Amino acid sequence: MRSDSGFTLAEILVAMAVFGILSGAVLSLFTKNVRTHTAQTLVANAQQDLRAAMMIMKMDIRMAGYDPGKENIAGFINAGAEEFRFTADINGNGKIAALMENGGLETDPNEDVSYLPYETDGIKKVARGLPNPNGTINKSPLIENIEANGLRFAYAVNDGYGRYLRNTNGIVWAVPGANGKWFDLDVNQDGFIDAADDTADGTTDGIIAGRDTGVTVDAEAIRGVQIWMLVRTAAQDPDLPSLNQRFLVGNRVLEYDDRFRRRLLTSTVKCRNSAL
User: Fold this and answer.
1) Which pTM was predicted?
2) Taking Cα atoms as reference points, which of 39, 238, 267, 260 lies closest to residue 146?
3) For 177, phi and psi rounded to 5 degrees?
């Protein structure tokens, strides 16, 4: 015999409640997975861009000073803590990005390369700069979302006697000082460039002033370059605890208290065309 009584109101309400709980759990799990995937994608993109930018920069720097004709025309033009410019006679024609009378470039513009930070539309970037016919620098973005002071360089130099300039714990990594001397970033000479070197001058201001080596700055003495690049993700991660993040970037100690994820990449390049 068939029953026509159906479900009671209580049974329907219980079923609806169970369905609501299960739906809420599924939606919550889905939302969490989407946010996790988004955060991981942002980090992966930042890391991929950072590695690609570093690879290109290192390839260029390795060619710095290349002068197959021994014309003494290639080398380092500007070696600063935040900007680096150098030349190389890539095509071996004895000229470096020479300007023609008609305003064009007579040779490969990639023979005169600059790396420097800049900003457009509120986005901080690292530029790979090449010369324009009018003598200015054409800034092409190498990587975006670089932090302020997130691009830094330091240099290993010749001590004037055919050797690397050293301190008590190894090779000196230095930046040019205001007095025209190389300043060693390992101020306390413990073998590491770290936040402790920020306090060596009696202040904690996020800037490593450096230790005066007494050696006059000479770009031709550069034998190696150490590079730091700090980038952040394109958007904040709301699930990331707002922690005090600290990074050592060249002669800067950078601290952040927000929800951006950041990645720091450091690399060293030996300038093989300016051998000791």
Assistant:
1) 0.84
2) 260
3) -95, 165
**Residue-wise DSSP of the chain:** --------HHHHHHHHHHHHHHHHHHHHHHHHHHHHHHHHHHHHHHHHHHHHHHHHHHHHHHHTT--TT--S--SEEEE-SS-EEEE--TT-SS-SSPBPTTSSBSS-GGGEEEEEEEEETTEEEEEEEEE-TTS-EEEEEEEE-EEEEEEEEEEEEB-SSSSB-EETTEE--EEE-TTSEEEES-TT-SS--SGGGGSTTS--SSB---EEEEEEP-GGGEEEEEEEEEEE-SS--TTS--EEEEEEETTEEEEEEES--EEEEEEEEE-GGG--
Nearest to 128 by CA among 161, 98, 84: 84
pLDDT tens-digit profile of 186-211?
999 999 999 999 876 667 789 999 99
In sequence order, what are the residues at sequence separation of 6 or more whose Cβ sits closer than 8 angstroms to the Cβ of residue 179? 212
- Summarised one tens digit per residue, pLDDT across range 213-227 is 999 999 889 999 999
The residue type at 92: G
Average pLDDT of the segment spanning 117-144: 91
| pLDDT in the model for residue 107 | 61
